[in-house]
TrEMBL record:
<protein>
    <submittedName>
        <fullName>YcjX-like protein</fullName>
    </submittedName>
</protein>
<dbReference type="InterPro" id="IPR007413">
    <property type="entry name" value="YcjX-like"/>
</dbReference>
<dbReference type="Pfam" id="PF04317">
    <property type="entry name" value="DUF463"/>
</dbReference>
Amino acid sequence: MVITTLADTITRSVGAVTDTLSAPFTEPVIRLGVTGLSRAGKTVFITSLVANLLNRGRMPQFHAAASGRIQTIYLQPQPDDTVPRFDYENHLAALTAKTPHWPEGTKRISELRLSMRVQPTGLLGSFQGPRTVHLDIVDYPGEWLLDLSLMDKDFATWSAEVLSRLAGRPAAADFATALEACDPAKGFDEPQAKGLAAAFTAHLNAAREAGFSDCTPGRFLLPGDLEGSPVLTFAPLPLVDRPARKSLWREFERRFESYKRNVVRPFFRDHFAKIDRQIVLVDMLGAIHSGPQAVEDMRRAMADILGAFRPGRNSFLTRLFQGRQIDKILFAATKADHLHHQQHPQLTAITQALLRDAQDRVEFFGATTQAMSIAALRTTVEETRNHKGANLGVVRGQLLNTNEQKAFYPGALPSDPAHLLGPARSGAENWLDADYEIMSFAPAPLTLKPGDGPPHIRLDRAAQFLLGDKL
């Protein structure tokens, strides 16, 4: 394992040296990673971002576009022929149809390239012609990103962590029953292994549906062509003192290490380690609605995700000797259109407080971070309603799977994030003094003027933070 890790490191370093030395003679490339856990809105974010870059009428805070320095942007084939292309056209068609619907979510890695003709600024800008900058958008499931935290854990450590947080989680009782019926110290039996893995997978799926975030291994949720393979047929086990070589415990330990070696490490080496900028989409409202335990689980999951990043400044020497590093990370609380704009500052503050520990670590190593509340596609309009003598800021939209228009007030988010994060950290089962609701809205029918992309909230500010300095 040490030799494999060393070889991967050397390979990445050689590639970094080659890229760095050739960079002055090639067109610059920005590799933007887009991730987030299930239902955070990755597919919609990328689709709306691309549509609003191609038609920049709604991007006033994206300075290169607002100043007119971007002359044109166009789609090109992505440079990696082995990675599926992000299906932008079909996703946009779903959102802009006469009866719009949400596109299918992210289930695998995909990529898309945009090329931009940009007029440089500065003292020499007026003497130079426009240059081409390529933007490679890499979309991958957040569940896969969580797996990067497994690289520094052995089977015993991972098992102990998973088993310690089973209590109270959905479908945990069924898995616990299956676990009690086996003896990890006894000989390995394949049907028993399949039963344990199936019960554990059912628990992971139920936990994700209930709003929990830390559900590793991620490929158990999105197996693809690995479904049914031994590398996805294991489960956490209680620690066994000096287990025998052909015991269930030893075989599951072997499969756990194989998962890290054959699934997690290639993803890091081939895709994740090449990213320059990163946006992490967070369904903060969904976690709050699910309760304190889901909020605390999201905090731990995001800390693990950030622990997998290689933050730092992408200077010439840094790239030459250490490889690519992520130098800007945006944490975006999605579905801001489910709240009146009066509550957006509270949502941003809660997101920032939730990620504070991990954010401090990233900034210590030289990366720049920011938290923001966004809606990649705005589905609601704002209204003010009088309720018991008080004016409430509400949002109104079409409910998902119905034709009903409904005004919605989710509850008042606290101005002090500690009022949410305190109960979450202490293990409270419910919010004591509030009940936060959530509504599922359908995409609204759009009538777009020429030059306008889909309506959004702060997508232009997100683009400016992630890309502005490169343009």
